[in-house]
Amino acid sequence: MTPPRTKKSSQPPTTRARLQSVIKESRNIMRKDAGLNGELDRLPQLAWLLFLRALDEVEVERQMKDPEYVPAVVGRYRWCEWTQGDLTGPALLTFVDEQLLPHLRELRGSGRAGDPKDTVAQIFQYIANRMHSGYLLADLVAQLDKIDFANADDIHTMAHLYESMLKEMRDAAGDSGEFYTPRPLVRFMTEMVDPQPGEVVLDPAMGTGGFLVEAFDHMSRQATTTRQLEAVQEGIRGTEKKSMPYLLAQMNFLLHGIDRPSVVQTNALDVTIAEMRNNGVDVVLTNPPFGGEEEKGVQGNFPSGLRTAETVWLFLQAVLARLDTKKGRCAIVVPNSVLFDQGIGARVKKALMKDYNLHTVLRLPNGVFAPYTLIPSNVLFFDRGTQQDHVWFYEHPLPEGRKNYTKTKPLAYDEFADCAAWWGGREREGRRETERAWQVPVAEIVESGYNLDLRNPNRPDDLTHRPPAELIAELIETEREMLTLLEQLEREIKDFAL
């Protein structure tokens, strides 16, 4: 077994400024390489190399604590081995492309969720070295080797920097049709659901792991014993369909001290409802894909009367199945179409309100996901149990004087202070109607065909004093709702004809 390497005494402390300098220089090096075009190439390249660098430190630390621990990556494939010699140029490219990456893809562990060998193999299944110059790759590796992940404070500092890189990755991904949940919304949803040590938290569409990291931090703050801290580690579950977000999530977990997450790279919808129920969890925090479509094989995993190609409805059904426990609870981001959809949508909402208590609908203003999409969105909060006789709605306002969120002026966590104060804690006690909050009898919702697209009755709706841009946005949204309903009717007619 390769002994842990000793840090050079001349290596200076990894301060935030030094880390920023290392990352800046690393990106400057990558800009010179002809194989990397834009951030969607550079950041993934940086991410998998950083992952191997961080993994090496984590495994060195585990070996020091447990002499019987066997690293996932051993011998000449360890970062501390192949980066310390004179390997450069074409020889380095040959080693990375023909030996290192194939070896990492072929690692085999126990098959249990969280096994580090299986995790590494999953991560590198679709990873490729995109750099064309072995000399520039050697320079990049030398830069990243300056980062010290061994110290907890350094890891905390690197986590902040990594989150800024994730944001840039998300900004770049927005151009290709993907968008991610703003951190303030993730934090608010997590705090309102309030997962506790010992509970199992799932994100079935985890992306880069934001909800799971937030849940881990939230539960860790509640833990008071070593056993509770271990339970927090054991309580993280997640799935992600795409390889690059999965890699970024694993890096995110490493940097935040989540070293045994039970997460897999797979389509969470690619199992039957019965299998989902047999693998239940206590909490689901998620923002499933909007507007996606699933193939017939995936649709076949769902009850015949509730099959649809629309991803969001399949995910909502999957969440209900996963929360088939006495204390199950959920916060899920959904587009406006979920609120007003009839047909299969109404049937899914009926199932939701039959076995679960939909207690709160948080209506978010336009632009929360700007600049990636202007689709209006909402958060559904529900618990396992009997539906109460009313549903609360809360309309989250834009900051005063603002017409929209933007890339430079995004949603801020402090804006949720009024809603958090109104919420009433874990038991939701003392809620009252305000200019922003109102309740609707469940009987009215049922009578309307489970329409949840309800306007705030406590806010003045004087058209003469409303901004033209707001009126236009409302008209566009109305037209969008009509188009969605017509498309839904067209699909149902086609399905009936088959």
From TrEMBL:
Instruction: Give the catalysed reaction(s), semicolon-separated.
Output: a 2'-deoxyadenosine in DNA + S-adenosyl-L-methionine = an N(6)-methyl-2'-deoxyadenosine in DNA + S-adenosyl-L-homocysteine + H(+)
Quote the PROSITE patterns the UniProt record gives: N6_MTASE
Task: Name all DNA methylase adenine-specific domain ranges.
Answer: 155-459
Asked if S-adenosyl-L-methionine is a keyword of the record, the answer is: yes
Q: Which Pfam families match?
A: N6_Mtase
Q: Which SUPFAM superfamilies does the entry mention?
A: S-adenosyl-L-methionine-dependent methyltransferases
One biological process term in Gene Ontology: methylation
For this UniProt entry, the molecular function terms from Gene Ontology, in alphabetical order, are:
DNA binding; N-methyltransferase activity; site-specific DNA-methyltransferase (adenine-specific) activity
Claim: Transferase is one of the keywords in the record: yes
- Keywords (A to Z) from UniProt: Methyltransferase, Restriction system, S-adenosyl-L-methionine, Transferase
Q: Which InterPro entries match?
A: DNA_Adenine_Mtase (IPR051537), DNA_methylase_A-5 (IPR003356), DNA_methylase_N6_adenine_CS (IPR002052), SAM-dependent_MTases_sf (IPR029063), T1MK-like_N_sf (IPR038333)
Q: What EC number(s) would the UniProt record show?
A: 2.1.1.72
Task: Describe the family membership recorded for this protein in Swiss-Prot or TrEMBL.
Answer: Belongs to the N(4)/N(6)-methyltransferase family.
Q: What name does the UniProt record give this protein?
A: site-specific DNA-methyltransferase (adenine-specific)
Q: Which organism is it from?
A: Janibacter indicus
